[in-house]
Amino acid sequence: MNFIFNLTFREIRSSWRRLLFFFLCIAIGVGSIVALRSLIQNLSKTVGGDARMIMTADIEISSTNDFSPTEIEKIEAVIGKSQIVEARNEAITTATMARPVDNAETLSFVELKGIEPPFPLVGNFKLSDGAPFDFKLLENRGAVVSPLLLEELGIKIGGKIRIGEAEFQIRATFSEEPGGTGGFRLGPRVFIEKKAFDEAEITRNTSRIRRRILYRTSDNPTELVKALRENLKDTILNVQSYRETQENLSEQFDRTENYLSLTGLLILVLGGVGVWNVARVFVEQKRKSVAVLKCLGASGTRIIAVYLLQILILGLLGSFFGVFLAQCFLWFARYRFIDALPASMSYTIHFPSAWQGVLLGVLISLLFSALPLLQVRNIKPRLLLHDAAGEKMRRLDLTKWIFSIVSIAGLLSVSAWQAGSWKVGAFFLVGLGATSLMLYLAAFALISVLKQIKHFSSFSVKQAVNSLYRPGNQTRIILLAVGLGAFVVLAVQSLQANLVREFDFTRNQTLPSLFIIDIQRSQIDELKTILETRTGEAAQIIPTARARVAFVNGEPFDFANRETRQQQGQIGREFAVTFRPNLEENETVIAGRWWNENSDVPEVSVEEDMARRLKVKIGDSITFDVSGRKITAQVTSVRALDLRNTRTAFIFVFRPDVLEKAPLTFAANVLKRLPEVDRQRLQRNIIDKFPNVQIFDVADIVSAVQKLVNNFVLAISFVGSFVILSGILILIGSIALTKSQRIYENAVLKTLGAKRLTLTAILFAEYGLLGVLAGIIGAGFATALSYAVAKYIFEIDWEFDFGLMMLGVLITAVLVMAVGAIASFDVLFRKPLATLRSQ
Amino acid sequence: MIQLKNLTKTVRSGAEDLTILDDVSMEIPDGEFVAVTGASGSGKSTLLGLIAGLDAPSAGTILIDGEEITAMSEDALAQLRSEKIGFIFQSFHLIPSLTAFENVLIPMEILGLKDAHDRAEQLLIDVDLTNRGHHYPAELSGGEQQRIAIARAFANQPKILLADEPTGNLDSRNGGHIFDLMTALHRQNNVTLILVTHDAGLADKAQRQIRLRDGRVVSDEINHRDTETQSFLIED
């Protein structure tokens, strides 16, 4: 045992420089896994870790309508009996328009929240000056707002804003609001008194209002929630406990974490390829030492144990360094993404993730170095007597087969562990294998084509091409590794370009520039005139009603069921529904048929995704709650919606003669592209005239979405750059593997009269060529992937971006050329005599 | 006692079989100093390699102290070398990543000797390289490297010392020193020494000289000069 430890220590001492790449390959892989997992864990701890803070209560009962006296009675009947309810309050929220009283130009969409004391039941509410929130600030039409609103409207504390027809004075801004830790919002938050909300009649003509009754409890609220649900089952009220919200959020975060971990694992597996390459070089370089050790009496198993221990130690050290890199990544994330991430989020390493990363690093080190290390068994001590450099090692024997299978099984277990599912893990591994195989075949094909081209006028290019298939060349492995990196980065960049293009107004003429909703019947004519005068286009007015799905085939949703509860956000929400006799241009009936002229029962057409969620088919019935009235309609068709070519997108469309008598509001949209100033002015004019109306400026929504897309792309590109980095490490490892051959070739060429400049040109040509080939492979597959994702997942138009792909190929070529030249430059300065003598 | 019985070694060379050793038989008693000579390609090094168990014969048997080694596994052969055989190569074959001292230490560590450090220090004294122990092989001259290789070969107090042209890569002065050192250690430790050499002068100093030609023993003679009284002659 002493022999193993002593020799391991001595080997590391003398070989650490050669094994530095090994160390870095593992460090980068582990770093990415730990960083991504820590980021999600910290985010989950901040956002999802305490759903109670988000809900600002333990129990929430919500509705889009006023709570009826019967409903209140039913709630109180349960609450009254409970011993655990400590406090209660009510809140009301909506998205609406706010505009300064003293400025006729600006306006902003705001998320308005009417509250009553005690507030908050749970969570913190801190003002910008650090003082705690005092409810007195809201009394007598006061408002506490997000500092962002002051910026957007160009007003100061003390200034007045108009919401609906009421005026509010801004008394303070806040730095931390209860329940507010980011997420997608239409506008800045404004707090007012709930009473003022009602008094200002904001609710009168506004849709999308949500009313909440909130409770704080002294104990686990699960039983109470059950009792409330039971008592309220024939109503459309939503009852939710923070525990269920937490459960849902945790599940979502777990899924995200597992998928991101697979991205990290991809980098680590690439690192593993680097490890495999370095281990091969290492064993190759150690052949004589191994033969000497065998000659001195050491068994093959003991020698393998020495190298395995070495790998283990380096894997462990590399993994620890990876944890340090992960911390650096988190600091970078804080610097770069601070605006997009919750303010109170921690940016330190999540320790369980760090240990997991270290374990993975060691496992990958062992799995990928096992096969090359097995070559040690085949090194015969007789090579010390005869130069057996040309002696071929046996390619595959039974032990190697067994180790290969064990390695693949190990990799599968690691993937499944990271993905949290055997199925996903297997898909990941098969996907990675298939991608690698395709890249490898592409590399093979390209080299074969190159081989056919016999005539090169330049000596340097000819030599460079020859060196791509010299014996023991690493061409395919370099093309595979670097090509994979270029593939990931270029695919993401290409998708970004297509996504951004999709949201480009100048190209999407069918996307409206303004959406106007909550128009009252009495306002239609005047609004139409304004729109037509200002835009020159005829306004399209669409009747809408607010409806919720109460029953499907007579059955209410069973929110006690976990699967149904997870869909609550999609199926339990309030929908804007409409009626019309015709199909729109962007709609296609994919099942059933459009209205039956002779039918006298209410009919409804359902959008395909919703039909799937509700599990409804043609002939089923859906009962809607439209402002307290129940309407049961038969599903007669399922529609596909082309969202790219749309002025409107209704999930439920009714046959005429069903909804006409329901409380209706109207929507309108403006297609014409107006300059921003004109758009703002038009909005302001409409709001001044019709304060109840709400206007969505699509440009604002698009810019918010673009910001999200950009952050997403930046994050993926960042991860992609790690893939490239792993590829570069593999490249450096491969250069090391062929270095002695290159030194010998250069010595011969120098002896034959080649100048250093010629040799330099050969070097640049060789790596330039490799880079171009890797770039072409990456760009080719990136184009295919971005096309497939754009077409079949995002369902957007796709365009080939020639400039981007060319730039990608160029950058890859320059990068590979630079790295290759730097790693081999010393070769040019070796004296030929010493090299030739040593051969 | 080393016994070789009808030893044959053939290797594949292209489409043909090439016989390197052809039906070689001999016995070498304990403590004898044998020189094996012959032209290049006569099979000298192969013979030495087979005795050390570095390679397996195509036919015939090798017995060391009555134990047949041709049937042994690789690990058993390694164990045998560790306990009984020291080897000195023409091109030294020190492990480049270890210092001179560690190179001497290695065989004792493989065997798990407890006094390895003290013994390695003594061996460095014996080969007169006490002050070079912390140097790496690349920092030593050829002569110094071969002295380290000799110290390493004697580390486990082997019964048999096999030397494959140990002076072949050295100038004559250094070669002379190495030969003297080797033979002195052979006498002190009473080991069987088999020396493969091209050098007729060195072969003459052995107790017995075996000549090989085309893989066959063509002569096996006892030298009548007493090596103990001979001093090495410097040849230019």
Largest sheet of chain A: 6 strands, mixed, barrel
Secondary structure: helix percent of chain B? 25-40%
Strand order of the largest sheet of chain A: 2-3-8-5-7-6
Fraction of residues in helix of chain A: 40-55%
The low-confidence parts of chain B are 226-236
Low-confidence spans of chain A: pLDDT under 50, at least 5 residues?
A: none
Instruction: Specify the number of helices of chain B.
Output: 7
Report the sheet with the most strands of chain B, covering strand number, pairing sense and barrel closure: 6 strands, mixed
Order of helices and strands of chain B: EEEHEEHEHHHEHEHEE
Averaging pLDDT over every residue of chain B, what do you get? 85
- The coarse overall form of chain A would be elongated
Task: Let me know the number of strands of chain B.
Answer: 10
Number of strands of chain A: 21
Explained architecture:
- The complex is a heterodimer of chains A (839) and B (236).
- With 839 residues, chain A is an alpha+beta fold.
- Chain A contains 24 helices and 21 strands.
- In chain A, the strands form 2 sheets. A 6-stranded mixed beta barrel of chain A has the order 2-3-8-5-7-6.
- In chain A, β2 (85-100) and β3 form a beta hairpin.
- Chain A starts with a helix and ends with a helix.
- Helix content of chain B is 33%, strand content 28%.
- In chain B, the strands form 2 sheets. Chain B has a 6-stranded mixed β-sheet.
- The model of chain B is unreliable at 226-236 (pLDDT under 50).
- Chain B has 236 residues and is of the alpha/beta class.
- Chain B has helices spanning 44-51, 74-84, 100-111, 116-126, 142-154, 172-189, 200-204, and strands at residues 2-13, 16-28, 33-38, 59-64, 67-68, 85-88, 160-164, 192-196, 208-213, 216-222.
- Chain B is globular and about 50 Å long.
- The A-B interface holds A 2-3, 6-7, 10-11, 13-15, 288-289, 291-302, 380-382, 384-386 and B 45-46, 48-49, 52, 54-55, 74-75, 78-83, 87, 89, 93-98, 102, 105-107, 109-112, 136, 152, 156, 164.
